[in-house]
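FAQ

Q: What does a record look like?
A: Structure on top, sequence underneath. For example:
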């Protein structure tokens, strides 16, 4: 499987953990058996991943995030106090999911709920700061859904092929954006606004547009990783990793749209 910029997909096995599994007979070739031959003792049956698994798990994670996000947003001013705690808890959960070798549906569900709380809180803060209200949130959601759908069409039609060269370019772009964000954060401790990458103005708008473009192309790597996992017969339980990975990219894209539209509407 090709390398991907999304750390969540690094947990996907390069081939099905039951690649030699004979699903018709319910047996798998052992380490000491010739390839294609069945061992004497049957092993536990494992179902290969399908596109339906990916769609279902992704719908569950996104649905939970949307519901908890909406409830948090509607909570009003008290919601803003939840932004930082939810961000920290979500970050810890994401690290556990990424470094945990086995997929954990419970952790992914917990991450989705906490991330929804964070998104609802930060969305309310941006909406009130700009005076746009829920209109800002709806615009950011429409932008996110539009880009996701467009990149899915681009991938499915083969308009842009995921080649090793493109993969390296996207990974390099993601790393570059992350470094710039980190440098800007460090600079903000010494100079108000840091480098100006996250401030309203031409530079801030240009950087947000760059981030949106990089996030959009990252979807191509996500789709490719999921497609290869399905074709290689990876166990269906790994669809939770794919759902988690897609959600992290969607969250990033949504936050960039939220910030971009907020910049356009700041006094």
């Amino acid at each position: 499987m090709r390398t991907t910029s999304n750390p969540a997909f690094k947990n996907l096995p390069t081939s099905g953990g039951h690649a030699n599994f004979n699903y018709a007979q319910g047996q798998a070739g052992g380490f000491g058996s010739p390839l294609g031959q069945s061992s004497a003792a049957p092993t536990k049956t494992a179902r290969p991943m399908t596109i339906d698994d990916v769609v279902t798990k992704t719908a569950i994670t996104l649905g939970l995030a949307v519901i908890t996000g909406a409830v948090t947003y509607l909570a009003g001013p008290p919601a803003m106090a939840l932004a930082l705690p939810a961000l920290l808890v979500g970050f810890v959960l994401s690290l556990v999911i990424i470094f945990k070798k086995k997929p954990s549906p419970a952790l992914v569900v917990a991450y989705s709920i906490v991330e929804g709380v964070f998104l609802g809180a930060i969305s309310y803060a941006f909406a009130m700061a700009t005076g746009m209200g829920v209109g800002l949130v709806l615009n950011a959601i429409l932008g996110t859904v539009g880009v996701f759908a467009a990149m899915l069409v681009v991938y499915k039609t083969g308009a842009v092929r995921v080649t090793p060269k493109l993969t390296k370019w996207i990974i390099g772009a993601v790393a570059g954006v992350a470094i710039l964000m980190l440098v800007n954060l460090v600079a903000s401790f010494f100079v108000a606004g840091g480098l100006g990458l996250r401030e309203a103005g031409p530079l801030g708008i240009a950087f947000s547009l760059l981030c949106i473009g990089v996030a959009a192309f990252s979807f191509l790597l996500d789709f490719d990783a999921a497609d290869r996992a399905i074709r290689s017969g990876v166990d269906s339980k790994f669809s939770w990793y794919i759902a988690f990975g897609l959600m992290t990219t969607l969250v990033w894209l949504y936050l960039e749209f939220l910030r971009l539209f907020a910049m356009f509407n700041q006094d």
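Q: Is there anything notable about this one?
A: Residues 7-11+49-264 form one domain.
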